[in-house]
């Protein structure tokens, strides 16, 4: 492996750094975007029960806000529970936009890695071919070993760049879709709470 990295030339350094960064982002996002962490099951039902018991004090709302992204969105609405439905919804939507930005954290970086690593590989290909033609110009085609150095550099950097870019792009698309799904779930749960509190929805099993 070390021989391949060395043969690939200096461009292997940024490609390897991109691979380490991409791996770290993928692992972190897998942890951060678990559905049970973002949209805990039964949270709206718990909040509704507390509301019915008149136990939704400032401390409870603070704990709710710190519990999960959905809890943060719901807490923004509960702070305005004494106001009309539209004001409560606006508070939820405004806070929801901030939560979405947090869910999308590092995804742009992962997308950038997926875009630039093939270009780094292509640059390595160009540099390798330049070395090949320089060797041909200086020594002719009689020394295959000299030509092999440039060709191997070109192929190794291209392969390395694609090896980082392909999984990075796959996970970028996957996490984008997951964020969209989680946002839809948070919108549904938040709307349930608003409608139940304002008497527009029955508070039966639908909150579970």
List keywords for this structure.
single chain; 208 residues; mainly alpha; rod-shaped
Describe this protein's structure.
By secondary structure, the protein is an all-alpha fold. The protein has one domain. It has helices at residues 2-7, 12-32, 35-38, 43-52, 58-67, 69-78, 85-103, 107-139, 144-197. The longest helix is centred in the C-terminal third of the chain and has 54 residues, at 144-197. The mean pLDDT is 86.
Tell me the major beta sheet: none
Enumerate the spans where pLDDT stays under 50 for 5 or more consecutive residues: none
Shape call: rod-shaped
Beta-strand content estimate = under 5%
Strand and helix order: HHHHHHHHH
Number of helices: 9
Helix content: over 70%
Mean pLDDT: 86
* Number of structurally distinct domains: 1
Number of E-state strands: 0
Spatial extent as radius of gyration: 27 Å
Which structural class do you get from the secondary structure elements? mainly alpha
**First-last Cα distance:** 53 Å
Gist of the model:
80% of the residues lie in helices and 0% in strands.
């Amino acid at each position: 492996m070390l021989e391949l990295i060395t043969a690939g030339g200096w461009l292997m350094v940024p490609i390897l750094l991109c691979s380490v960064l991409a791996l770290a982002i993928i692992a972190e996002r897998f942890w951060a975007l678990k559905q049970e962490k973002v949209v805990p099951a039964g949270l709206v039902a718990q909040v509704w029960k507390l509301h019915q018991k008149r136990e939704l004090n400032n401390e409870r709302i603070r704990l709710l806000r710190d519990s999960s992204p959905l809890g943060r969105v719901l807490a923004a609405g509960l702070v305005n529970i004494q106001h009309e439905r539209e004001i409560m919804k606006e508070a939820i939507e405004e806070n929801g936009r901030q939560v979405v930005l947090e869910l999308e954290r590092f995804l742009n970086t992962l997308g950038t890695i997926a875009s630039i690593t093939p270009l780094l590989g292509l640059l390595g290909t160009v540099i390798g071919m330049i070395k090949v033609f320089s060797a041909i110009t200086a020594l002719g085609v009689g020394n295959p070993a000299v030509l092999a150095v440039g060709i191997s550099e070109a192929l190794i950097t291209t392969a390395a760049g694609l090896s980082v870019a392909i999984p990075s792009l796959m996970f970028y698309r996957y996490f984008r879709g997951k964020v969209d799904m989680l946002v839809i779930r948070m919108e549904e749960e938040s709307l349930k709470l608003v409608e139940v509190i304002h008497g527009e929805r029955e508070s039966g099993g639908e909150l579970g």
